[in-house]
Write a structure and sequence with these properties.
mainly alpha, 5 helices, 0% strand, elongated
Length: 190
C-alpha cells in the first residue's frame, strides 16, 4: 500500500500539477497564473511562520508543565510538511499544504496521520518477534495479524533428571509438605 502511495506521489501528482497549471493558465492567462502562484507562496510562507510560532509556543508550554508533548510535536511536523508542500509550485500541493497548516483542518490531518501510523505500527509489530506483546483487539481490530490467534501449546513436562540425594526428602516429601515426586513415584522406583 505504501509503495502505491509513493508511486502516486512521485509520478501521478506532478502530471496532475502540470495539467492543472495549463488549465488555469488557459482560463486566466499565463502571467496571472504565475502571479497567483507567487501570491499563494507568499500567503503560505506567512501562514507557516504564524502557525509554526504557535506550535513552538504550545510545545514549550507542554514541556514546561511536564506533560508529554505528543500533540504539539505532531502539529509541528504537520506545519513543516505543509510548508514544504506550499513551497512546491503547483495548486494541488498548495491545497494539501494549506490543509496541513490551517488550524481548523490540522486536527483532521492529525487524526488521519494517527490512524495511518497506528495501522503501520500494528502491521510491523505483528511481523516482529514481539508481535505477541501487542493485543489483537482494540481500535483497528480488523487489521488482524498475519500469524493468527493464540500461540499456546498444550503439553507435559518430563523431567529425566532426579535430585542428587535420592533419599527421603530428595523430592520434598517430608511430613507436612507436598511431594515433588514425578507422577506419584516412590523412592524405590524414582
Amino acid at each position: 500500500m505504501l509503495r502505491v502511495l509513493l508511486f502516486i506521489a512521485f509520478l501521478v501528482v506532478p502530471v496532475l500539477e502540470i495539467w492543472m497549471l495549463i488549465q488555469i493558465g488557459q482560463v486566466i492567462g499565463g502571467w496571472q497564473t504565475v502571479g497567483l502562484l507567487i501570491l499563494d507562496s507568499l500567503l503560505g510562507a506567512w501562514l507557516v511562520r504564524l502557525e509554526g510560532r504557535r506550535a513552538w509556543r504550545a510545545l514549550r508550554e507542554a514541556l514546561n508543565s511536564g506533560r508529554m508533548p505528543d500533540r504539539e510535536l505532531v502539529d509541528g511536523a504537520l506545519v513543516v510538511a505543509g510548508g514544504t508542500l506550499l513551497v512546491t509550485p503547483g495548486f494541488l500541493s498548495d491545497i494539501a499544504g494549506f490543509f496541513l497548516i490551517l488550524p481548523f483542518t490540522r486536527p483532521i490531518a492529525r487524526r488521519w496521520l494517527g490512524w495511518f501510523l497506528g495501522r503501520r505500527v500494528r502491521v510491523m509489530a505483528a511481523g516482529s518477534p514481539f508481535g505477541m506483546m501487542f493485543p489483537q483487539g482494540g481500535p483497528g481490530a480488523g487489521d488482524e495479524s498475519p500469524r493468527g490467534g493464540s500461540r499456546v501449546v498444550s503439553g507435559q513436562v518430563v523431567d529425566d533428571e532426579t535430585p542428587a540425594g535420592r533419599g527421603p526428602g530428595a523430592y520434598g516429601d517430608t511430613p507436612g509438605r507436598p511431594s515433588l515426586r514425578p507422577h506419584g513415584g516412590t523412592p524405590d522406583n524414582g
